[in-house]
Design brief:
Blueprint (H helix, E strand, L loop, with lengths): L1 E5 L2 E8 L2 E4 L2 E3 L2 E6 L2 E6 L2 E11 L4 E6 L2 E8 L1 H8 L12 E3 L4 E6 L6 E2 L4 E7 L2 E6 L4 E2 L2 E2 L6 E2 L4 E4 L1
Antiparallel strand pairs: 1-2, 1-9, 2-3, 3-4, 5-6, 6-7, 7-8, 8-9, 10-18, 11-13, 11-17, 12-15, 13-14, 16-18
Length: 164
Amino acid sequence: MYQTKINGKNFEVVPDEGQFVINGEPFQWDLKAISGGHFHILYKNKSYNAEVVKADRASKTFQLKINNKLHTVEVKDKFDLLLEKMGMTNSASAKINNVKAPMPGLVIDLKVKSGDTVKAGDPLLILEAMKMENILKSPAEAVVKNVKVKKGDSVEKGQVLIEF
């Protein structure tokens, strides 16, 4: 069972032998993949062109364009729902506020500046510690709000280096 939210409206989706039951009603459609991210759909004798515009698998959020109209789809599986019921949220979608120095060291290079958009794993800066270069990477997708250090700065463990 999945719970989906499409443009703010909630639906319960249950897979059933290659088809779906949505809010208790069988959903009959023909779906044909055309090319990477593009699909053709037949539903109730109407034709629809669909395109996956954006897919964020970590947060299970998707943007679909259907007949040139944009739709935002959020999906929660049974594990997401259980965690939510227990008062726990998915850590992959947690918002990050800053990156702190993991150890004392010297900033030898900055890879970002204020206003830059970074993805998870993008290099932010290079910190030299104990004669080793350590590349600090972004833990999530974010926009750099403020770079608190500059090249050549000495930093202490736990010092905020970059704010998002």
